[in-house]
Write a structure and sequence with these properties.
This protein is α+β, with helices and mostly antiparallel strands. It has 2 helices and 24 strands. The strands form 7 sheets. Strands 7, 8, 11, 12, 18, 19, 20, 21 and 22 form a 9-stranded antiparallel beta sheet that branches. It has a 5-stranded antiparallel beta sheet with strand order 13-14-15-16-17, with no helix packed on it. The longest helix has about 35 residues. The chain is elongated.
Length: about 325
């Protein structure tokens, strides 16, 4: 059988995969924090008809004669360039101005040190009925506090706290937080109903308002992770990524405050949108379509030649 038949099949399969990736990119053109994919091809193997010969004093050199046997997918890369910023003016909509820095979310309570953690660029967070900061899937947005290394994780809960009663210091009262904001380093600035202001803090057992700027260790800030090779992250759906051994040595990232990670700054009121460029995707779609058609032509032409061979016997 003609080798071109199977070369054409391999080419069609490759361009089918390319079109699948392009379709997914286009479908997610408005997905917050989405990172587009890219397909790279490479040849499979080559049949050697004749080897190369080196030049001599009597004759020149001869190049090798080889026939390629098709193509295959070399890689399907995730491109982590920054997406376009979209201004929302919503205080819990957050973006990070660094391509390899991510927010940390967890399906379990972040206080569980053995719980699973995922990375995301989708900063469209909200506060649930219990006052916890969560993403659109209800996963907890992780915060960090304390001086340990790595930092202890904690849920970001903005509801109320207990404080000494000014009228009777032997008693405590519960004060509700009335407003909050998130600054460029991920700290949560809070105000309570008594007019006190400070940062949301956690001492290992309870939340409180810390107005003492000289004791910032227990202040909660959003947990972030800086990844050495973002392309090595594994997509797990819901615009989240899982750390792999090729993303970070040992398959674990350091979760810390963003200024400790040198991970850039957090911008409130802005979302990082998809990095899909429709112009590029439509161009690649044309390339994939024509490439598929060309490989289909290779198969039909090879079939016509085989038909001629069969018709030699009447």
């Amino acid at each position: 059988m003609l080798k071109s038949l199977y070369s054409g099949i391999s080419g069609m399969k490759g361009f089918q995969t390319k079109l699948d990736v392009i379709g997914n990119n286009v479908a997610n053109v408005n997905t917050v924090g989405f990172k587009k994919g890219r397909v790279i091809f490479q040849d499979i193997i080559n049949q050697n008809i004749a080897g190369a010969t080196a030049p001599t004093n009597q004759s020149g050199g001869v190049n090798p004669k080889q026939i390629g046997l098709g193509s295959k997918i070399a890689s399907i890369d995730t491109i982590h360039t920054a997406g376009s910023p979209m201004t929302t003016n919503v205080g819990t909509d957050l973006a990070i101005d660094r391509e390899n820095t991510f927010f940390v979310v967890t399906p379990d309570n972040p206080n569980d040190k053995n719980g699973a953690s995922y990375l995301t660029k989708a900063g469209n967070f909200t506060r649930d009925a219990n006052g916890n900061l969560v993403n659109s899937n209800g996963y907890f947005v992780s915060g960090v506090y304390g001086t340990a290394s790595p930092k202890d994780k904690v849920a970001i809960n903005i509801t109320d706290y207990t404080a000494p009663d000014p009228a009777d210091p032997t008693k405590t009262i519960t004060l509700k937080f009335t407003s909050y904001s998130i600054d460029e380093n991920g700290y949560i600035n809070v105000n309570d109903e008594a007019g006190h202001s400070g940062k949301l803090a956690f001492d290992g057992t309870k939340y409180y308002l810390n107005s003492d700027t000289t004791q910032p260790d227990n202040d909660i800030s959003l947990a972030t992770a800086v990844v050495s090779n973002p392309g090595g992250l594994k997509k797990v759906g819901n615009t989240m990524f899982e750390v792999t051994g090729n993303a970070e040595a040992g398959g674990k990232v350091t979760i810390d405050r963003i200024q400790n990670n040198s991970g850039g700054t957090i911008i409130s009121g802005i979302l990082e949108m998809s990095n899909v460029d429709l112009t590029e995707e439509f161009t690649e779609m044309i390339v994939a379509q024509r490439g598929f058609q060309a490989n289909a032509r290779t198969i039909t032409t090879s079939d016509s030649i085989l038909e001629e061979v069969v018709n030699l016997k009447r």
